[in-house]
Design a protein that fits this description.
alpha/beta, 13 strands, Aspartate Aminotransferase, domain 2, four-stranded antiparallel beta sheet, 388 residues, seven-stranded mixed beta sheet, globular, 2 domains, 13 helices, single chain
Amino acid sequence: MKFSKEVQESPTLSLAEIARKRKQAGKKVISFAVGEPDFKTPEFIIKATIKALKEGYTGYSTPQGLIELRIAIKEDYKKRYNANYSEEEIIVFPGAKAAIFASLASLLEKDDEVIIISPYYVSYPPLIKLAEVESKIIEIPLRKDFKLPIDKIKAAITKQTKLLILNYPNNPTGQLLTKQEVKELVQIIKEKEIYLLADEIYDQLIFEGETFVSFSGFKEIKDQLIIINGFSKAYAMTGFRIGYALANKDLVKKMNLFNQNTNTNTNTFVQRGCLAIYENDKGHLATYLKQLQKKVNYLDKQIKTIPYLTGIKPRSTFYYFVDISKTQQGSQTFSKYLIERHGIVATPGKAFGKKWDNYLRLSLALPLEEIKEAVKILKTMELKKTIK
């Protein structure tokens, strides 16, 4: 396989190694880097998965995913978003990332253009290039207020444009699209006759008073739409590796061929365990979101008191994208300083796009006490010489 320059190691690996050595030496590490929820997988999922193992669900399943799980996903989308999909328009994968890769491999051809919005999920560029090395990536940055520049997206679409990738709720900014913005994008997708891959993996991590609008409810672009989702974020199932895609039947057939010849199928007993999600209430999620919002409110208030940091309060997810430009340091340099001198791990903004090197992503998937401890350190750090 021909690898392009976009297929590189994560820029966070060196920081992870520094953190590992620091822990090994018995020193304190406060990590804002983890992209997974900080609660235990609900017990009803664990029990259902164990039950499936005991009942013998240890062999192959259909590559497209168990029919009973696809029906449950179909009914869930109908209930939550008034989306009309059949079980034949749903396919299950070992992780949302695998679903994205299969979508790209099934769609992209030589010289196709793919528009991505930065800051973006770190794996989009390498996944695009692994799927089709000769595709062209068009990167459009968000505005400084993290608003989507819809006019620039429309202007960037050419005859070669095959696909627009959007990630909302957004990682790393925690922002949402308004209903009006979604409607405008739907109209553009329809008029320009391109595909939209909507990565909605954080769709259930929405804060009180906020509203998430799923593209799945817009039937006028259904044939041009790929919805990506999974169970990792809302149910603390990152290690289970299970996600899914909703798309038109022809595209799902291609993705199914991809799955047959790569993964064979998604873990059978894990799929059975996921069925319990649709048979139990989401009490754990309501509790978690309350705790998460408390942490977001606290950090947002504190950032406003730290002279070298600025930020826009997240409306969803468990991320806070912080502006560090007043430190006059790049994100990789400042991240290295934080971990080496103070034991604080943060993800460099550069990982989410070259134009975001003056930002850090802070994951709030850690105890509030540790966030408070980190804030105390940030307030007392001697950065006066580098602050404008």
